[in-house]
Amino acid sequence: MTESCIITARINELAMRDRNPYVPWSIDEIVADAISCADAGAASIHFHGRNPISGAPDNSDVAYEAAIRRIRAVTDLLIEPPLGFPFQAPSSSRADQACKLAADLATRPHIAALDVASVSLASYDAAGKTFKNAELLFANPISELVAFAGQLRSAGVKPVCVCWNVSSLRIVAALADMGMLDPPLWLALRFTEEGQLSGHPATPKGLRAFLDHLPDQATQWMAVGSPASLLPILDNVLEEGGHIGIGIGDYPYPELEHPDNATLIRYTAERIRRAGREVASISETKQLLGID
After folding, report:
1. What domains sit in the chain, N to C, each tagged with a CATH number?
2. Strands (E), 69-175
3. pLDDT tens, 172-194?
């Protein structure tokens, strides 16, 4: 078991404020959350550009450049932006922004998310026996994954492979076997609830199914609940040597009275220590993930 546990703060995703009012949208709010999450124990931050008024996605260069520069001015947090907006057209350009950011040392991300699956993003309403967004498909063709992996390597950015299911793990293993992904592999095992059927359920059995099919290559992995509470499997993840990617961007955590991100990170850090593990520092995280 890895002794130290990496905490990645996933602060906003595409979440609105109807379920948790503390979701950061503006650059000021994103930077403030980054600082407070670092103080609480996070070693890495994952964020999406958002319109400060409406909360709509903002995938502009300005949104990311400004936030990264200001975060870097006050903390050494590892920076992890998304790999473009999921439905950006053409999808083959989704790595362009990460590579452009990487061209300047002041804005270079350490990590970028690489979703290794083509999945339906429809949600099922069991009470109404209906699907919402039944046509919504998140397409990630293998040809694009190979291209993205090559672009990120050339840019000096570490992919975190977002794995939605066992099939994702098999694709990651194949990409690594091709030499497209450098060890140690960094995986985000995605758990989904609330009618989202694309990921594994956030249960011990859902976790076990992932762990039984991890790649043979050197691997570090974290659990991500999006949308799902990670609390029911948090102890299982820690016992198995995993890391934690958590934030109110993924889930509002009503069971913790709708906390802000820093409060959620502090709670997670305390659970890690109670499980007999240490919270990984930023330097330890770089070493664990093979990041310079």
Report:
1. 4-289 (3.20.20.70)
2. 78-80, 111-115, 119-120, 123-125, 130-132, 137-138, 158-163
3. 999 999 999 999 999 999 999 99
